[in-house]
Design goal:
Elements: H1 5-21, E1 25-34, E2 41-50, E3 59-66, H2 74-86, E4 91-96, H3 102-109, E5 114-118, E6 133-136, E7 142-148, E8 154-160, H4 161-170
Parallel strand pairs: 3-4, 4-5
Antiparallel strand pairs: 1-2, 2-3, 6-7, 7-8
Helix pairs in contact: 2-3
Domain Restriction endonuclease type IV Mrr: 7-126
InterPro entries: Restrct_endonuc-II-like, Restrct_endonuc_IV_Mrr, tRNA_endonuc-like_dom_sf
GO biological process, one term: DNA restriction-modification system
Length: 177
């Protein structure tokens, strides 16, 4: 069964961060970190460990991915800031497909170490390898992506049909195979 489109979005953000981080960073997907105030494990979409902004010491950065149909509001930013405080992380990146309300942007800018980024689903194809092969089975709700990663190794990934359609549209193709 194909994973949900939002999970594919998170995986692609993770792949981009791995590429950008190179050897200086460790990028971990779908992690659990104990909350120091809540006393429960907190789910982290992506955890990046490495050196940032010229800092000589290794730091953690929590990345939260939101694939919503509307802009994130100030409540989403507040929840993210609370997550960072609970897991004792001073750096955070909040990523969304649709952007932020002006109030949410102002709130994020007021917190040191919190950055926001808009990465739309149709822009994800810019980061994926160019030679993506999409395969589907009639009646299935999933598609298979086959491609070579940055090291030239063959990779296969299950994605939703919606995600596969977005990839094909971005490549100038209009129909699934």
């Amino acid at each position: 069964m194909a994973e949900p489109l939002w999970k594919s979005y998170e995986r692609q953000i993770c792949a981009v961060l791995r590429k950008l981080g190179g050897e200086d960073a460790t990028v971990l997907f779908d992690q659990q970190i104990p909350g120091r105030f809540s006393g429960v494990n907190r789910q982290i979409d992506i955890l990046v460990r490495g050196t940032f902004a010229g800092q000589p010491h290794v730091h953690d950065m929590v990345v939260d991915c939101k694939m919503f149909s509307r802009k994130l509001d100030v409540t989403h930013v507040e929840n993210f800031v609370g997550l960072l405080e609970d897991v004792n992380c001073a750096l955070g990146l909040l990523v969304t497909t649709e952007g932020f309300t002006p109030a949410a942007k102002r709130r994020a800018e007021s917190v040191r170490g919190v950055n926001t980024e808009v990465i739309r689903l149709d822009e994800m194809t810019k980061w994926l390898p160019r030679s993506v092969i999409v395969a589907t089975t009639t009646g299935s709700s999933a598609a298979t992506l086959s491609f070579r990663d940055d090291d030239g190794e063959p990779q296969t990934q299950w994605v939703s049909l919606d995600f596969a359609r977005q990839l094909l549209i971005a490549q100038g193709r209009t129909e699934l195979p």
